[in-house]
């Protein structure tokens, strides 16, 4: 159709055949723009669905428990409660007194052992002075201040034992002197007798021939000979007496050494026994003081008192009976989430988590950030519902919600919802996976 025919207007196309009229009619610019906009919108949607990522997360209910384990307070020996210093829910610090047990019997035992120890210390000071040969006893300041009676008693005993030992030594020394003097006298006598016997022997020898020839009286010769025999007998007897005196001197000297050795040996034996008794008594006193210190039952950690089992003073408690529980006040909390069996395969340590505390509106107060710390290897079964779940521990970065510490505190026992991020995926794959999964299940015959 020529340009002249088109210029004739729409009235011209009314008289043309339908197919030719459509081809001859002019397209509207608005329709073209609308089609392009719609097409661009769908392309943008597909592009966004391909590039946009959404987080994948496993949501599980859970409960808050302290970052440290709950500490159970007990007493190894038990006893009667004298005073209760805390109540359930009180915040306590490490080492703070919770309750006090009756200490009257332990206090009496401690006083008895302390008195025994001072007695042994005084005895040890005396024995050490005796063993060292000191002129006086050096008592400790504690003994002198608390037990002057022991100082006086052991000082008198020290002097008496020293004097008795000195008396034994002096007696032995006198005996030694006597034996030595006797020996000296006998030696002089032996010398005199020896010289007399030598002179008489010379006379007998010189007079023997004269007597035989009749030149010297026979009776006179016999008298001299008898005198010689008597002198030799006295000399032999004196020598035997000297040997006996020397033996007696040796015995006296042995007794003198024995006095020193026995006295020192007895002192050393008594000293060793006293030291052993002192050490045993000191150990028993330390134990008694430890038991006295344990009558004040203290908190092992900072935390809150729970399950206080003692209500009235005078109440008896058995050894190792739980008296209270201390829930630690830690810098962070542990969330124990119960993850369903179908989701546990996607959970592993180190994954980030968001914790919403049911007691606080998360829109108003926010959430806690945390990290998966431990995944249980064994499953548990809910006794009420029968559902299988795995315990997953999440450690949080704070113990409160909001910016101000000490406000909106999250405490053990509160229920939470934990969202553990397991990955991310595109929106398009999320939609296509659902379609593919539905189609896969739809074309199965039961």
UniProtKB/TrEMBL annotation:
Biological process, per Gene Ontology: protein transport
Domain AprE-like long alpha-helical hairpin: 107-289
Coiled coil: 162-189, 225-291
Keyword Flavoprotein annotated: no
Pfam families named in the record: Beta-barrel_AprE (PF26002), HH_AprE (PF25994)
Superkingdom of source: Bacteria
Main localization of the protein described in the UniProt heading: membrane
InterPro entries linked: Beta-barrel_AprE (IPR058982), HH_AprE-like (IPR058781), MFP (IPR050739), T1SS_HlyD (IPR010129)
Protein name per UniProt: Membrane fusion protein (MFP) family protein
């Amino acid at each position: 159709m020529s340009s002249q025919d088109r210029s004739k207007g729409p009235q011209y196309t009314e008289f043309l055949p339908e197919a030719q009229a459509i081809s001859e009619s002019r397209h509207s610019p608005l329709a073209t723009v609308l089609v392009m906009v719609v097409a661009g919108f769908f392309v943008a949607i597909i592009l966004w669905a391909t590039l946009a990522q959404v987080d994948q997360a496993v949501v599980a209910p859970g409960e808050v428990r302290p970052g440290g384990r709950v500490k159970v307070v007990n007493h190894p020996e038990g006893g009667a409660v004298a005073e209760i210093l805390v109540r359930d829910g009180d915040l306590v610090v490490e080492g703070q007194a919770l309750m006090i047990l009756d200490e009257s019997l332990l206090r009496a035992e401690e006083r008895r052992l302390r008195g025994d120890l001072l007695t042994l210390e005084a005895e040890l000071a005396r024995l050490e002075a005796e063993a060292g040969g000191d002129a006086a006893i050096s008592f400790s300041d504690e003994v002198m201040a608390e037990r002057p009676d022991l100082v006086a008693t052991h000082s008198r005993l020290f002097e008496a034992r020293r004097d008795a030992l000195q008396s034994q030594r002096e007696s032995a020394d006198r005996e030694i002197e006597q034996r030595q003097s006797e020996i000296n006298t006998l030696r002089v006598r032996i010398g005199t007798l020896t010289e007399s016997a030598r002179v008489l022997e010379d006379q007998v020898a010189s007079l023997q021939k004269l007597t035989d020839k009749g030149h010297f009286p026979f009776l006179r010769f016999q008298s001299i000979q008898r005198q010689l025999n008597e002198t030799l007998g006295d000399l032999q007897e004196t020598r035997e007496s000297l040997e006996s005196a020397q033996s007696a001197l040796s015995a006296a000297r042995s007794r003198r050494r024995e006095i020193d050795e026995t006295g020192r040996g007895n002192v050393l034996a008594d000293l060793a026994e006293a030291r052993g008794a002192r050490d045993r008594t000191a150990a028993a006193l330390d134990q008694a003081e430890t038991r006295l210190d344990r009558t004040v039952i203290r908190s092992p950690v900072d935390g809150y008192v729970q399950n206080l089992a003692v209500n009235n003073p005078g109440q008896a408690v058995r050894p190792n009976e739980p008296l209270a529980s201390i829930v630690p006040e830690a810098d962070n909390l542990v969330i124990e989430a119960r993850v369903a069996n179908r989701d546990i395969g996607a959970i592993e340590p180190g994954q980030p988590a968001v914790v919403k505390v049911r007691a606080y509106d998360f829109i108003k107060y926010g959430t806690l950030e945390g990290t998966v710390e431990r995944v249980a290897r064994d499953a548990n079964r809910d006794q009420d519902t029968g559902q299988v779940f795995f315990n997953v521990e999440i450690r949080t970065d704070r113990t409160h919600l909001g910016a101000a510490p000490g406000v909106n505190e999250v405490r053990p026992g509160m229920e939470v919802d934990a969202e553990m991020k397991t990955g991310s995926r595109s929106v398009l794959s999320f939609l296509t996976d659902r379609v593919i999964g539905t189609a896969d299940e739809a074309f199965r015959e039961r």
